[in-house]
Every structure is written in C-alpha cells, then in structure tokens.
Amino acid sequence: MHERGRTFLDDLLATASPSGFETPSQRVWTDYVRGFADDVSVDAYGNAVAVHEGAPDAPAIACTGHADEIGFIVRDVLDDGFLRISRIGGSDRTVSKGQHVTVHADEPVQGVIGQTAIHLRDAGDEEYEEIAGQFVDIGATDADEAREHVEVGDPVTFSTDCEELAGDRIAARGIDNRTGAWAAAEGLRRAAERDVDATVYAVSTVQEEVGLQGARMVGVDLDDVDAFVAVDVTHATDNPDVDTERRGPVELGAGPVIARGSANHPVLVELARGAAAADDIDVQLQATGSRTSTDADAFYTARGGVPSLNVSIPNRYMHTPVEVVDLGDLDAVADLLAAVADDAAEAAPFAVDV
Q1: Nearest 5°: phi and psi at 287?
Q2: Which of 35, 71, 277, 335 is the most buried (most CB within 10 A)?
Q3: What are the tens digits of pLDDT across the range 225-276?
Q4: Domain 71-158 adopts which CATH fold?
C-alpha cells in the first residue's frame, strides 16, 4: 500500500460517519479522489461519485463501498444529566457498556456508556441490557448542564482509534465499511493508472447500515452503468470462539472474497475470477444463497436489473469497536477492482445466455 493510500485509509478510519451523518467522511473521500478522477459529484444525501472516462464504446462499471458506520443517537436527556441512546444500524448491545464514546454535537463531547461495577451487581445477573436501556455519562450533573453540550439527535460513536497489530493487520471501529469505500477509490486510481478502456465509477454510498438507502438512490441515478461491484466486509470465521456450524471458508490474509449466488451475476463472477487469476491475485469464494446483505442487493434490482457482484474484505469481530482486517487483503481488493475494470470490455455484455 503506497504512502498516500495509507494516509487516506487512516483519515477515513479517524473520521466518524454514522449512518445519516456521513458528510465529514465524504469530504475526506472526495478530497482524495479529486487527485485522479475526471469528475467528482455528490448528490442531495451525500452519495459521492468519481469517474474515469473511458472509450465511448466501452462498458461502464461502478465500484462501490459504503461510507457509513454503525453507532448510536441521543434519544433523550434525563433530569440527572445522563443521555439515553438508540441504535444507528446494528449496534451490538453486548460490547457497548463500559466503552468511551464521542457525542458528535456542534463540538465533540466525550462520554462513557455506563456499566455498574461488578461489586454492585448480583452474582450471575449478567443479562445484557438493550441499547435503549443503556445510558451515556458525559459528566453533567443535571439536564441543564447536559443540554449546554448536546441535544437530542446528536450521533454517538465509540472513541477507539486505529491500532497496528502484528504483521499487516489493524484494528479499528468502523472498518465496516470505510475499507470498502477506500477500496473503491483506490480501485479507480489504479484503473486510471492502467488507462483502462472501460468507464469506471468509484462510489461512496451513504446509509447502507440502515437499509441500503444510498445504493437505492445511486442505482437509479447512474443510469449508464452496465455493472456494479459492491465492496464490503465479510465475516472471517477463523478465530477460536466461532461455533463449528458457523465457520466458513473465509480467512484473514487469504485474499479478497468473491461471492456466488443470489445477487451475484454469473458473468461478473467469472470476470472477477479470471481477472484475479491473470493478475496472480489470490481470492476466496463465499456462498450467498439468499442475499449478500450488502449494497449489491439494492443495485441488482435497479432499473429492471443491473448485473452486480459483491466482493468482500475478510473482517474479524464485525460491528464491534475492534474490527480486524489484513492490509494485504485490502490492497488486493483494490488491485482486483482495477483488473476487473481492465478486462470488462472483453466480458461485456453482462448477460446470461438463455
């Protein structure tokens, strides 16, 4: 990973972007892609699109990742100054208590999600409260003092930083899916360096975690796109506490994951596998029998059906403050996107032969 790309990744991971509040992160993304894109645009809800203009008769392919992360939102300010919160997306109630958080008010406010000390809890009473029953302590002594700093509707995220682990692995919150947005941008840069014939879009969508909403907008708006490749994270199940029946073939450090089934168009699956083989990129396969649970599920039904593919980054501990990925996998995903764009003209048109 080159130095500018790594700085870009660090900047994305350091910028909070809970669903519905992605603007700061999208600014980081658009600032980066303006360095090599032919054009950059943003729609009314903040979906960001950059493009490399290819040959007039070549296909157009969009590589996408979603900018938003899970989090919380201030639901109420209590008389004693504590804050009640609700979920943004699929926040995990089993990992939230006892964590440092940031309330993203007009000025950031630091707080903690309260956890009663073990000494004051009944032995064996270890039920996890729902997020709606948990609270944030910002140090305020009453509601008036709390409201000087925050108000209802302010988003909240964990305050964990990106940390280097052994080898090429990192841990951070919100790896799901700022890494996918990073890969879309880097894939565009590498495709532009190759001067591919295809027109290539890089897209950073909003509000995936609350129902693929940004992808629904983009799937209609980009009406000249012939195929979408949605990059997201997927579960690496190679850690010891994953039940045997939930283990899959995906491992950290073994390369990008190409999904098969449901939304994944068979021509695009073969295009990606062939491009990976030609460029000596190790890939893994994953079955998606019902749905991908990514933006691909929205793209492929847009405009009566647009060929789509889900390519994933192996990720441990998804939807926790300590998600873990291997930078080698991430770098390889960007290379794979560029290779797919380079071979797209030979694979087009993307249609099944019935």
Answers
A1: -90, 135
A2: 71
A3: 999 999 999 999 999 988 877 778 899 999 999 999 999 999 999 999 999 9
A4: Elongation Factor Tu (Ef-tu); domain 3 (2.40.30)
